[in-house]
Design goal:
Blueprint: H1 2-18, E1 19-24, E2 27-32, E3 35-54, E4 57-74, E5 80-86, E6 92-98, E7 107-111, E8 116-117, E9 130-137, E10 144-149, E11 158-164, E12 173-175, E13 183-188, H2 200-203, E14 222-232, E15 237-245, H3 246-249
Parallel strand pairs: 3-7, 9-14
Antiparallel strand pairs: 1-2, 3-4, 3-5, 5-6, 7-8, 9-12, 10-11, 10-13, 14-15
Signal peptide: 1-20
Keywords: Signal
Protein name: DUF4843 domain-containing protein
Length: 252
């Protein structure tokens, strides 16, 4: 019985490799596949959703951290034309012809909401100084003060940036090694209140951001944080998610 099951699985796999199912003008299209080649896409999309097309056929959408690692199908000797289109307008932002015998180097892209480029640019490292930038994808009426502290007292925080408007990058803030381990905390702009429900547990950045200190990590890195919000279905409260470090997505 097990052998029969394995044979069925093999047949299903062979069938999936023999055809490509996708959507063309809202209709299911099944095309013969001549060759499968590995391909990887890595990027980040801000301010909109980008649609990915191959030879005029939409295959997927990207928003926020964009990543795909799989195969691209060729049904002839001709290259496949890949396009990234802005979903809200249909504007083609990037066109690239992908050859059958391309190298396995990932295709990278960064869309800042206005223009698309191959990668995200950030400053060079400075010894013993951590450089950190922030972008808050929050409602327009939700400006933020960025501070650090140990989380015990909102009145004792030290500010990194004040009145940061949603939808705008801060400058890269230079942070020397601190006296102890500290956390990055978000406050309502101009108020001694934590950003979400005045609760430090919901207003602390906790997805890998690191501040340097004199007794551990000394600094010298660069971080660039894109921060959004979503509702937690379990608590019915907003949470800071995603928290994506663009420097980690676009390493040098």
């Amino acid at each position: 019985m097990k052998q029969k099951y394995n044979m069925v699985m093999v047949l299903m796999l062979m069938l999936s490799l023999a055809m490509q199912s996708c959507e063309r003008d809202g209709q299911l299209a099944v095309l013969p596949i001549d060759k499968l080649s590995p391909i990887e896409f890595k990027g980040f999309v801000m301010g909109d959703t980008l649609e990915q097309y191959f030879d005029g056929v939409k295959l997927r959408e990207f928003q926020g951290w964009a990543r795909f690692n799989g195969n691209i199908a060729f049904n002839s000797e001709a290259p496949v034309k890949m396009e990234l289109r802005k979903k809200s307008t249909g504007e083609v932002l990037l066109t690239q012809n992908i050859e059958r015998n391309r190298t396995e180097k990932p295709i990278t892209f960064f869309y800042d909401g206005k223009k698309i480029s191959e990668k995200y640019e950030y400053p060079a490292a400075i010894a013993d100084i951590e450089q950190i930038a922030f972008y808050f994808d929050f409602p327009a009426d939700m400006p933020v003060d960025v501070a650090y502290g140990d989380g015990s007292d909102v009145n004792s925080v030290v500010y990194l940036a004040r009145n940061v408007k949603p939808g705008q990058w801060t400058d890269f803030i230079q942070v020397p090694p601190l006296e102890g381990e500290m956390y990055v905390l978000l406050l309502k702009a101009g108020k001694k209140e934590y950003l979400i429900d005045n609760d430090v547990n919901y207003s602390v950045m906790s997805a890998g951001i690191v501040l340097p200190n004199k007794y551990g990590y000394q600094g010298g890195g660069v971080q660039s944080w894109y921060v959004g919000t979503r509702m937690d279905v379990n608590t019915n409260k907003p949470v800071l998610d995603p928290q994506s470090n663009l420097v980690a997505i676009f390493p040098r």
